[in-house]
Amino acid sequence: MSYSVGQVAGFAGVTVRTLHHYDDIGLLVPSERSRAGHRRYGDADLDRLQQILFYRELGFPLEEIAALLDDPDADPQAHLRRQHDLLTARIEKLQKMAAAVEHAMEARSMGINLTPEEKFEVFGEHDPDQYEDEVRERWGDTDAYRQSRQRTASYTKEDWKQITDELDALHRRVADLLAAGTPADSAEAMDAAEEHRLFITRAYYDCGHEMHTCLGEMYVADPRFTEMYDRIRPGLAAYLRDAIVANAARHTA
């Protein structure tokens, strides 16, 4: 059975002009002609066209496609293996591209739409996007995560600087209490812990005392948080955790 050029164009989703061009350059010469001299394509021609379009989709120039298809040492199985390898590589590349686009979308949805220079100016060596994948995996399904994303979506560089300065001042205040030997369950330390909880509620998400206590435990359990706080003053992570626990007990008793 054979097919007209119009039928083949419809099958393959190409133009008749494209098929004429492939014929003119010898890339796809129809195996038959009608009595009137019109092109007629057989099943073998359609198979070759399928391979041509596959390689074209991957960006191969027509000359290289012709060399591949006319290689006397390549059998149909070899073509299939080559196409499978090329498809696998293409899929991996597209997956990486999709992941990169997804990451960019997430970064924008978090509201940290700052240039690298602005990020360094506001956050110093700490990159707020560094642990975004981990944060999303651990808390992505929570109301707190969604609320934080919504609130920070409109933050400007000045907003982030104000938030960072306020949190730094609060950390220094708690560190001074620790240095002075003030007990973690003292009124001063518990008041500082309550201010810390209200800061989170105001800047990011509604943080109740139970959630605040969980955060305090994380400051000690996660060595990254412990290192960050203890770099301000040794023992600060545990001290802040104890103050948070005492403050929660004070408000829930």
Written overview of the protein:
- This protein is an all-alpha fold and 253 residues long.
- The chain has three domains: 1-68, Multidrug-efflux Transporter Regulator, Chain: A, Domain 2 (Orthogonal Bundle); 74-106; 114-249, Antibiotic binding domain of TipA-like multidrug resistance regulators (Globin-like), CATH 1.10.490.
- Helix content is 71%, strand content 3%.
- The chain is built from 13 helices and three strands, in the order βααββααααααααααα.
- Strands 1-3-2 form a three-stranded antiparallel sheet.
- Helix 10 (187-203) crosses helix 13 (236-252).
- The protein starts with a strand and ends with a helix.
Defining traits:
253 residues; mainly alpha; Multidrug-efflux Transporter Regulator, Chain: A, Domain 2; Globin-like; 3 domains; 13 helices; 71% helix; rod-shaped; MerR_fam
Short description:
The chain has 253 residues and is mostly helical. The chain has 13 helices and three strands; from the N terminus they run βααββααααααααααα.
The N- to C-terminal Cα distance equals 87 Å
User: Shape, please?
Assistant: rod-shaped
Helix content: over 70%
**Second rung of CATH, namely the architecture of the largest domain:** Orthogonal Bundle
Low-confidence stretches: 114-128
The SSE order reads: EHHEEHHHHHHHHHHH
> By CATH's scheme, which homologous superfamily of the largest domain applies?
Antibiotic binding domain of TipA-like multidrug resistance regulators
Give the averaged pLDDT, no decimals. Answer: 81
Major sheet: 3 strands, antiparallel
CATH class of the largest domain: Mainly Alpha
Taken together, the total number of domains comes to 3
Radius of gyration: 32 Å
The chain-level structural class is mainly alpha
Number of E-type strands: 3
Here the CATH topology of the largest domain equals Globin-like
